[in-house]
Structures are given as structure tokens and as C-alpha cells.
Amino acid sequence: MSAAEPAQNPNQAFLVQLVHRGFLPREQAQLVMQAAAEVPFEDALAAVTDWDEERITYLRATEAMSKPQIPGFKMEGLLGTGATAEVFGAQRLKDFKRVALKILRPNLAADKVAANRFVQEAKLLKELDVAGVVRGYRAFRFMGTLVLEMERVPGRTLEEMLAEGTRFKEREALAIVLQVAAALEGMRARGVVHRDLKPGNLMIDKHGKVCLIDLGFAGAGMQGTHGAGTTLGTAAYLAPEQARGEESLDGRADIYSLGATLYHLVIGELPFHGEDDQEMVRAQVLESLKGSALKGLGISPIMHFFIEKMMAKDREVRYATATELVEDIQAHLAR
After folding, report:
1. Catalytic amino acids?
2. Are the CB atoms for 215 and 194 separated by under 8 Å?
3. Which SS3 state, helix, strand or coil, does residue 108 take?
């Protein structure tokens, strides 16, 4: 900022934070500024939002929860951020256990569908008790949003590593897939389909141990869509039947997504490309993996086989269960 430019009013800066962090729509922020010309700023904010003094004071002190303070916890900083939530490290004051706190973005906390999905994830994580899947402890409401307290998992996401240009060796990638497939089988045995498997949901530690850290779209009932025209999952890794919005999804949709993840790990790029999610979804439905292209990417015939079988457009051609995939990978790695 140049010397000629005036410093931003602290109240204006606070409003900008509230809008940016999803606590306040831009239109309401404008109403607050108009009202603040006649009455004290806090009074104007309270009148427009119905927030009490305690909430306003908290949001100002924590910079709109970008630096949250939550009773019962010593906060340790941001661990990761996504489209729907932020995850902070924390230590429980009652027993000093280090945990992770996943905080739903405030604008989504006001949406019944998003809030219900968040609560469902918390319930699933608490009940599943599957090796290789992060444990959930409890969910609670705080300052207008939802917080999920869960196990603190060490390491980095595969997405972070891929973004830095990491390309995994074949045996290393298969060892990762083997662990994820075992976790998927544990979920399938309990009637749960993940529906959003991708590198960003997989944490790996320095010893190569992998943990599935997000169940945001998972659930029983094999429902593939939520609401008219809305497909759950991340476009780059969606199974074709999921991209079409079919309702009768099963574990084979997760196997496809795991195959797309395997492709990304060993090739270093996504199997299909598009300028936006709509184009990516179209590619998942209509385009096939080109065998000749795979052969030119320097991967082994067995890797070629695994990727093509896991990512078959026809789910009847894919592995029927994650157990079958585990058996094939174990047989190959034992050679």
C-alpha cells in the first residue's frame, strides 16, 4: 500500500474477513456498513446478523476463526484445508491427547444438506473402527458452525506430494493401493461406500503407512446422488456410473477411483483432463483409457493390467471386491 492510500478501517477489515471466511454474505456486509453510519459498528452488525456480543467479540479476536480458540483444547495450528472444511491440530486439556479438529466452513454449516453430511461423517468415523481409516470421536456445534474431533494422523496427503511433482515407483504405489483396498474392504463389509476416494483423502507417514482421512461423502444405502442433478465425489476420480448419477453404487465405484489414484501416482498426471468439472465428468463417462498411450508411459505390463481392470468403464469388468484386488496385488508383490 502506497503512502497516499489510506489504511483500511479496522471495522471494514473485520467485515472483509467475515465475508471471506463465509460468515457473512457480501450483501449483508454492505447493510452493516450502511447501518454503521448511524449507530456503533457492533450494534449495526448485531442488528443485521442477530449475533450476540459474545459471538462478535470471539470472531473479531480469532480473525473470523482463521485462528480459532475452542474451549477444552489448546490449538496448535492449521493442518490442512479443503473446499468444505479446515483441519486444525489441537491438544485436549483434560488428558493432553493430541487430536485433529475439522471445522466445517460457516457458509456450509447453515446449509442443511452440508451440515447433515458432516454429522453423518462424524457418526461413521466413530462407528466404523476399520484399520486404515481415521477414527472419529465426536461432533459438536460451536460459534455457528460444526466441529469434528478426530484422530490426529501423522504424515502428508498424497495430493500434496503429487502437487510437488512426486512420481511414485510401481511397487511403492501398489503398496499404497494394497493398504487402501484393505480399508475399503473393511468399509464394504459394513455396508459403506466411500464415493470420494482421491489422493487428497489419503495420508501417508514416513514409514509408508496409509490412512483414509475423510469420509465426507461415504455412507450406507448405496446412494449415488444427492438431490436433483448433483453427483457426489470429485470429478477427476469419479467412476462412470457415479458420473452419470446412478443411484445403485457399490464398492466397484471406489475401485475405479482407486485405479484413477493409482494412475496418478505412477504416471504423475490425471487419466482424463478437462477445463472444468463438467468436461471431466463427460470424459469419465465417454472416454476410454487408450492402451497404446499406457504402453508408451514406461509402466510395466502388470501395472497396465491393474490400471485397466480397476478403471474399466463397465463395472462388471472391474474387480468385484477390494479383496480380489488385494489378492492380485499380494500375489504380484510376492514374486
Report:
1. 196
2. yes
3. helix
